[in-house]
Specification:
Helices cover about 60% and strands about 0% of the residues. The protein has about 850 residues and is mostly helical. Among the domains are: about 1-235, Leucine-rich Repeat Variant (Alpha Horseshoe), CATH 1.25.10; about 345-470, no CATH class; about 700-833, Leucine-rich Repeat Variant, CATH 1.25.10.10. The chain has a two-stranded antiparallel ribbon with strand order 1-2. Keywords: Phosphoprotein, Repeat.
Length: about 850
C-alpha cells in the first residue's frame, strides 16, 4: 500500500505493469491470502486511473483491462469498486483528459461486464456523454464505441435510448465524430429491428455517404457493404469483418512538407514491368487549416486530390471547390507518364462520354491556346518567387513552346498516315511520339480546375479511359445517331438493377463505387472496398438478384488495380457457393479463367481456393482445368516458393475430384516435378501428395504398377541423394497413412527401399532406418506370414544397427520389435558386413 503515496511517477507506472502478475499470484494462493488483491491491490489500480501523470494513467488502464479480460477481478468488486469510480471520472466537472479516457474504458468494459451492469451503471452516463457540448473528444469516443454498447444492451434499449443519440452524433458539427459513426454503422444496425433498419437507418446512412467531408464519405463507403449485409435474412446473415489495414506490398508513404503543404508520395520498393496497375496517390492541398481533432485522418489510405477537413466545419469550404488564388498550385496536380494513345481518336471530333468529362477535352479545346497561355504566364510572373508558382510557370512555358509546333506536327502526322492509307482502326493504340508529347504538355497546362482531374479512373491520364471496353469506345463515335436507342438501353439497365431486398438507394450507392469519379472524390481504393464486400452483398440479395451485381463484378474483375482483382480472386469461391452452379458457369468461370493468367498476386488468390472453386463446377467443366494446372509452376518470380507449396497442398485436395486415370495422366508429372523442388518445404508437401496419389491409384492395379515403377526409376535410382531420400520419405508416408496394402508395398517398393541400406550418404540411411523401425515394425510387418521379404528386411535392419554412423545406428535400434530379430539373421548380417 506504500506504493500508493510514492511521488515518483515512474515507480507508480512500473507497479501497474506488475499488477497482472501479482494478481495471478494472489489467485493461485487464494486460500492463504483470500482478500489480498481485492483489499490492497485493486484500490491502487482504481486510484491511478485519475493520476496526474499521463504514463501512470495509461498503465493503470491497461492493467485494469487485462485483469478484466482474464477474470481476475470478482464481479462484486467490479460493481462496487471499479464502476462507480469510472462513472465519477466522467462527471461534467472532471479533467478533460481523464473524462475522455474514463469513457473509453467504460466502452471497452461493457462487453466484459455484461448487459446488467452496463444498463444500470454505464448507460445513463454514456447517453449523457453523447451530448457533451463542450468536448468533441468525448463525443468521438462515444461514437467510435457506439456499436459495442448497442450489442451489449440489446435491441430494446438501443432503439429507445441510444438511437436518438446516434442520430445526433451522425449530424455532429465535427467531421471526426461523423466519421466514427460511419465506421460503426454495421454494429448499430445489427442491434436494431428490420423495420428500423429500413425506415430510419438507411436514410441516415445516405446522409453520411453524401457528407460534405471527404473523410466521412470515405468511411461511409467502406462500411456500405457491411451495412447492406445486415439486411440479410437471419438464416443467411453475413457478418463481414472490418476491412483490414491497408498494406502496401510494393511501397510506403513518406511524408514531406514544404510551406504548409503536406505531400505524400508512393515510393515503390521495386519496379517491374507488370506493376503498371499500381495506384497513383494524391496530394494534400496547400493551406491546410489546423485541426482541433486529436486524431489525424488515416494516412495509410491513399489520398486523392482533396482538402483535409477541419474539426469545426461550419465555415469549411465544400470539398470540390478550390480557392481562386490556389488554382495554379502545382501540388494540386499529378505529372502523369506519357500514355500510349491512338492519336487519330484524339484528333477526330467526337462527343466525350459522360464518365470522361476530362482533362482531355480541356487539352484539345482552343481555350488554352497560345494567347491564353501567355496571359496565364503573365499573371503568375509577379509571384515567381514562390516555388509552387515557379513550377506552374515552367509547365505553362513548356506548353507555350509546344503549342505552335504541336499543331503543325499533328497535321503532318495525319497527312503522312493518310498518304499511307493507315486508319486508326489499324493501329488502335498509336505509338507516334512527337504529337503525343504535345497533347501531354497541353493536358498538364489544362489542369487548372478540380473537375478536370476527375476525368479518368485510377491513373489520371488525359486520354480515353483504358477501363472502357472496346465496344463502348466504338459506340462513342456514333452517339449522335443512337441517342434514342441509348436512352432506351439506359432505362432497361436501370430496370435490371431493381430489387426489393434492401432499399434501392443503398444498392445504387454501392453500384456507384466502381464509378471512376468516386476514386477522385472519395477514396482511391474505393473499388477495393467494393470488391471486398461484394460476397456479403451478393449473399444479402440472393442469387435471384445477381443481375443487379453482374456488371459491377465484371467491372471490378477488369479493374486496372491488381489489388482489386486480387480481392476478387480470394473470394471467388465464396461467390460461387452463393450463386450456384449455373450462374457460376455463366458468369464466374470466364473471370476465373482470366485470373489464372493474371499477376502472381492475383493468381495466388485463385490458387489458395482452387479446390473450393473447382468442386462447385460440373465434372466436364472441371476436367478442362487439368490442362492448365501445370501453368502454376511458372511464376513471375522464381523465388516465390510459397506459390509452389500452395500448389502442392491444393493438388492433394484435388485428387478426390478426378479419376485415377486423370490423376495419372495430368497430376503425376506435377507431383514428380514438385518433389525435386529446390526448397525443402515444397518437397515435403509434395511427398505427401505422392503418397496420396498411391492411395488414389491403389484400386487400379495397372496404373499403380506403372506409377510405382516410375517412382522407383526417378527417385530410388536417382543419381542425387535428395532423390533417394525422397523415395524413402514417400515410402514412410505410404506406410504410416495406410496408402497402400502390405502386399502391394512388398511387391513394388520394399526391395528397392532395402537397397538404400548401402547408400553412400548417411542421411539416406538414417531415413531408411526410421522407415523400417518406426513405420514397418509398428504395424507388425514382421508377423505377416505371407511376407517373402521378411528375411531380407531383418538382415537390412541388423546391418543398419551396425552402421558406422551413430545416427543410423540409433534410429535402427529404437523400435519395439527389435528383440524379434533372430540370432541367425544377426549372424548372417555380421558375416556379410
Amino acid at each position: 500500500i506504500g506504493f500508493l503515496f510514492v511521488s515518483e511517477p515512474t515507480v507508480r507506472a512500473e507497479l501497474m505493469e506488475q499488477v497482472h502478475h501479482i494478481a495471478i499470484f494472489c489467485q493461485e494462493n487464494r486460500p492463504s491470502i483470500p482478500f489480498a488483491f481485492s483489499k490492497y491491490l485493486l484500490p491502487i489500480v482504481v486510484r491511478y486511473l485519475a493520476d496526474q501523470n499521463n504514463q501512470v494513467r495509461k498503465t493503470s488502464q491497461t492493467a485494469l483491462l487485462e485483469l478484466l479480460e482474464q477474470e481476475l477481478i470478482e464481479r462484486g468488486d467490479v460493481e462496487t469498486q471499479v464502476c462507480p469510480v469510472l462513472v465519477d471520472l466522467t462527471a461534467p466537472d472532471s479533467n478533460d483528459d481523464v473524462k475522455t479516457e474514463a469513457m473509453a474504458i467504460i466502452c471497452k468494459m461493457a462487453p466484459m461486464v455484461g448487459k446488467d451492469i452496463t444498463e444500470r451503471l454505464f448507460l445513463p452516463r454514456f447517453c449523457e456523454m453523447c451530448c457533451d457540448c463542450r468536448m468533441f473528444h468525448v463525443r468521438k469516443v462515444c461514437a467510435a464505441n457506439f456499436g459495442e454498447i448497442c450489442s451489449v444492451v440489446g435491441g430494446e434499449a438501443t432503439e429507445e435510448l441510444l438511437l436518438p443519440r446516434f442520430f445526433q452524433l451522425c449530424s455532429d458539427n465535427v467531421w471526426g465524430v461523423r466519421k466514427a459513426c460511419a465506421e460503426c454503422f454495421m454494429s448499430v444496425s445489427s442491434a436494431t429491428s428490420q423495420e428500423i433498419r429500413r425506415t430510419k437507418l438507411s436514410s441516415l446512412f445516405i446522409s453520411l455517404i453524401s457528407d460534405p467531408s471527404r473523410w466521412v464519405r470515405q468511411a461511409a463507403f467502406q462500411s456500405l457493404g457491411q451495412f447492406i449485409s445486415t439486411f440479410a435474412s437471419p438464416n443467411r446473415r453475413v457478418q463481414l469483418c472490418p476491412f483490414p489495414e491497408q498494406v502496401q506490398p510494393f511501397g510506403s508513404f513518406q511524408p514531406a512538407s514544404q510551406k504548409g503543404v503536406a505531400l505524400f508520395l508512393l515510393t515503390p520498393e521495386r519496379s517491374e514491368e507488370r506493376r503498371d496497375s499500381l495506384d497513383t496517390v494524391g496530394t494534400l492541398e496547400k493551406g491546410i487549416a489546423p485541426s482541433t481533432d486529436t486524431e489525424s485522418p488515416d494516412l495509410s489510405v491513399p489520398l486523392s486530390i482533396s482538402s483535409p477537413e477541419p474539426a469545426e466545419e461550419s465555415s469549411a469550404q465544400p470539398p470540390d471547390r478550390v480557392p481562386e488564388q490556389e488554382l495554379y498550385n502545382s501540388f494540386h496536380f499529378w505529372r502523369t507518364p506519357i500514355a500510349q494513345i491512338d492519336l487519330d481518336m484524339e484528333l477526330l471530333p467526337q462527343e466525350e462520354p459522360a464518365s470522361c468529362v476530362s482533362v482531355q477535352a480541356k487539352a484539345s479545346t482552343p481555350a488554352l491556346g497560345r494567347k491564353q497561355l501567355e496571359e496565364l504566364i503573365e499573371n503568375l510572373e509577379p509571384h515567381i518567387d514562390d516555388p509552387d508558382v515557379k513550377a506552374q510557370v515552367d509547365v505553362l512555358t513548356a506548353a507555350l513552346r509546344a503549342a505552335t509546333l504541336d499543331s503543325h506536327l499533328e497535321d503532318a502526322f495525319l497527312e503522312a498516315r493518310e498518304s499511307q492509307g493507315i486508319h486508326h482502326q489499324d493501329n488502335p493504340f498509336g505509338v507516334h511520339q512527337t504529337p503525343r508529347i504535345g497533347h501531354e504538355v497541353r493536358a498538364l497546362a489544362g489542369r487548372t480546375v478540380r473537375v478536370g482531374l476527375s476525368a479518368c479512373p485510377r491513373r489520371l491520364t488525359c486520354f480515353p479511359c483504358v477501363c472502357q471496353s472496346r465496344s463502348s469506345s466504338l459506340r462513342m463515335h456514333h452517339s449522335d445517331d443512337s441517342d434514342q436507342g441509348d436512352c432506351f438501353g439506359q432505362a432497361e439497365e436501370k430496370k435490371s438493377k431493381l430489387q426489393d431486398v434492401i432499399p434501392q438507394a443503398l444498392l445504387d450507392q454501392y453500384l456507384s463505387m466502381t464509378d471512376p469519379s468516386r476514386a477522385q472524390t472519395v477514396d482511391m481504393e474505393i473499388a477495393k472496398h467494393c470488391a471486398y464486400s461484394l460476397p456479403g452483398v451478393a449473399m444479402t440479395l440472393g442469387r435471384q438478384n445477381w443481375h443487379c451485381l453482374r456488371d459491377t463484378y465484371e467491372t471490378l474483375a477488369s479493374d486496372m488495380q491488381w489489388k482489386v482483382r486480387r480481392t476478387l480472386a480470394f473470394s471467388i469461391h465464396e461467390l460461387a457457393l452463393i450463386l450456384g452452379d449455373q450462374l457460376t458457369a455463366a458468369d464466374l468461370v470466364p473471370i476465373f479463367n482470366s485470373f489464372l493468367k493474371d499477376l502472381d498476386e492475383v493468381r495466388v488468390g485463385v490458387l489458395k481456393h482452387l479446390y473450393d472453386f473447382l468442386k462447385l463446377l460440373h465434372p466436364e467443366t472441371r476436367r478442362k482445368y487439368l490442362y492448365q494446372l501445370q501453368e502454376f509452376l511458372v511464376t513471375d518470380n522464381s523465388r516465390n516458393w510459397r506459390f509452389r507449396s500452395e500448389l502442392a497442398e491444393q493438388l492433394v485436395l484435388l485428387l478426390e475430384l478426378y479419376s485415377g486415370q486423370d490423376v495419372y495422366d495430368y497430376l503425376r508429372p506435377l507431383a514428380f516435378s514438385l518433389c525435386t523442388d529446390r526448397v525443402s518445404s515444397v518437397r515435403w508437401t509434395s511427398y505427401k501428395l505422392v503418397s496420396e496419389m498411391i492411395r488414389k491409384l491403389a484400386s487400379c492395379q495397372a496404373l499403380l504398377t506403372d506409377f510405382l515403377s516410375e517412382l522407383v526409376e526417378k527417385f530410388c535410382h536417382s543419381p542425387k541423394w535428395s532423390g533417394r531420400q525422397a523415395f524413402a520419405f514417400v515410402c514412410q508416408l505410404a506406410i504410416e497413412d495406410d496408402c497402400v496394402s502390405l502386399e502391394q508395398f512388398s511387391e513394388h517398393l520394399l526391395a528397392p527401399l532395402l537397397q538404400l541400406a548401402s547408400d553412400p550418404v548417411a542421411n539416406v540411411r538414417v531415413l531408411l532406418a526410421k522407415t523400417i523401425s518406426q513405420s514397418l515394425l509398428e504395424r507388425e510387418y514382421f508377423l505377416h506370414s505371407a511376407n517373402s521379404h521378411q528375411e531380407a528386411l531383418e538382415q537390412t535392419l541388423v546391418a543398419l544397427q551396425m552402421d558406422l554412423d551413430k545416427d543410423v545406428k540409433y534410429f535402427a535400434s529404437v523400435h519395439p520389435g527389435s528383440t524379434r530379430i533372430s540370432e541367425d539373421a544377426m549372424s548372417t548380417t555380421s558375416s556379410t558386413y
